């Protein structure tokens, strides 16, 4: 028996290959037959060769499916359970896990805080863009879902982007009734905007330059800001009648300038410092890396991002960043979906079989033809 997987084959290349089905390696493992795995903007960093991923790595940190085999130490899961896994692999028994900081688990990835499936530097965990995936510490890492196939496109977003968007808003210190501006209308930015709407923001601005993405933001009640038409900050200040309470960076280190071609890794953070009111807050779920061979200048290649820190100090701004502790949020967000109060699947643009992954990576990377969030069904349509 084999499992078909989406693997990195080199810069801007993925291939789909058959490999042996994963097996139970520890009594705490389960093997999940994957019904849906999503492609993430973070996969593109590896696809493009920006984060030093080796060829042969299996992609896929946003995974859900049905439990197929249960290790003998697992007590909360049974064969046939429908589950979604946080992208974080965590052991549930280190100090950070005890405190809910599962993205910084110290027990799953020696020399590094945090583990993930199918991700460079995040430990030896194969990705789930595959027919089967091994889930370690499964009682802790698998969230049970109602059986069946209902809301599949909503539940898969619990693996990463819905909690990550929600987390970005929390990192900014947001309170109901406040105004907030989100940079980036990719899947994470749209989820941050959607979370702000759900959490009672008085006004939500979303900055991007891709028309379909701005249209999606407008559809959920946010105010689109097109930064190809001029300074995002000026547009926000004018439309809001002043600075906003909170800002979220859902772009990360590959931010581009107004012209849309030149990377400027500090441009979003600089905009946020300008657009946030004194004593407001910046939430930064957007990814920054310690080394980046493709960076536009020597400093940012070493992960040194230049910031107007003096301005940040003068305004008394607070700032928080880091990977999302998915487990901190996924139960409440699952229950919002089950109750019909949240439907994050509006971001899903394409659903494909695994054989079409190569084309999907290419188009998603070029951000063409409306490719925003791609769901792969590795075992065929549901
Ligand atoms: N913290 C976490 O746990 C976590 C989890 C998932 C993803 N991420 C990171 O979040 C970021 C967003 O992910 P995504 O999948 O939505 O990515 P994406 O690449 O699909 O979206 C980024 C968007 O930013 C826009 N953009 C570029 N420059 C801009 C600028 N100057 N101003 C405003 N918008 C600009 C792009 O047009 C694009 O639409 C990435 O850095 C990703 O790695 C972090
Ligand atoms: Zn992701």
From TrEMBL:
Co-factor(s): Zn(2+)
CDD domains, per database record: PFDH_like
Classification via InterPro entries: ADH-like_C, ADH-like_N, ADH_Zn_CS, GroES-like_sf, NAD(P)-bd_dom_sf
Superkingdom assignment: Eukaryota
Residue span, Alcohol dehydrogenase-like N-terminal domain: 27-139
Pfam family, one: ADH_N
The Alcohol dehydrogenase-like C-terminal domain, residue ranges: 187-255
UniProt-recorded Gene Ontology molecular function terms: oxidoreductase activity; zinc ion binding
Alphabetic keyword roster: Metal-binding, NAD, Oxidoreductase, Zinc
Similarity comment: Belongs to the zinc-containing alcohol dehydrogenase family.
Name of this protein: Alcohol dehydrogenase N-terminal domain-containing protein
Organism, as annotated: Exophiala bonariae
């Amino acid at each position: 028996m084999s499992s078909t997987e989406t693997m990195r084959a080199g810069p801007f290349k993925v291939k789909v290959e058959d490999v042996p089905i994963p097996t139970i390696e520890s009594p705490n493992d389960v093997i999940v037959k994957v019904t849906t795995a999503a492609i993430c903007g973070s996969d593109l960093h590896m696809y493009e060769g920006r984060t030093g991923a080796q060829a042969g790595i299996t992609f896929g940190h946003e995974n859900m499916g049905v439990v197929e085999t249960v290790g003998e130490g697992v007590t909360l899961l049974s064969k046939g359970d429908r589950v979604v896994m946080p992208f974080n692999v965590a052991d549930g028994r280190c100090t950070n896990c005890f405190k809910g900081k599962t993205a910084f688990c110290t027990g799953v990835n020696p020399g590094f805080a945090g583990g993930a499936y199918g991700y460079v530097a995040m430990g030896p965990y194969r990705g789930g863009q595959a027919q089967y995936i091994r889930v370690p510490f499964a009682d802790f890492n698998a969230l049970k879902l109602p059986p069946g196939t209902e809301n599949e496109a909503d539940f898969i977003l619990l693996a990463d982007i819905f909690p990550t968007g929600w987390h970005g808003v929390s990192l900014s210190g947001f309170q109901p009734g406040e105004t907030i501006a989100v940079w980036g209308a990719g899947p994470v930015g749209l989820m941050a905007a959607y979370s702000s709407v759900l959490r009672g923001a008085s006004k939500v601005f979303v900055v991007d330059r891709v028309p379909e993405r701005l249209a999606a933001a407008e559809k959920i009640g946010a105010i689109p800001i097109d930064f190809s038409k001029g300074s995002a900050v000026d547009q926000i200040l004018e439309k809001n009648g002043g600075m906003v309470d909170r800002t979220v960076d859902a772009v990360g280190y590959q931010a581009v300038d107004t012209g849309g071609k030149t990377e400027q890794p500090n441009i979003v953070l600089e905009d946020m410092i300008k657009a946030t009111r004194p004593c407001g807050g910046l939430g930064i779920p957007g990814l920054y890396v310690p080394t980046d061979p493709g960076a536009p200048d020597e400093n940012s290649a070493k992960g040194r991002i230049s910031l107007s820190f003096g301005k940040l100090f003068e305004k008394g701004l607070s700032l928080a960043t880091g990977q999302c502790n998915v487990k901190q949020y996924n139960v409440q967000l699952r229950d919002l979906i089950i109750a019909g109060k949240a439907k994050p699947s509006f971001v899903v643009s394409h659903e494909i079989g695994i054989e079409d992954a190569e084309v999907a990576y290419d188009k998603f990377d070029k951000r063409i033809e409306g490719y925003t969030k791609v769901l792969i069904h590795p075992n065929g349509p549901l």
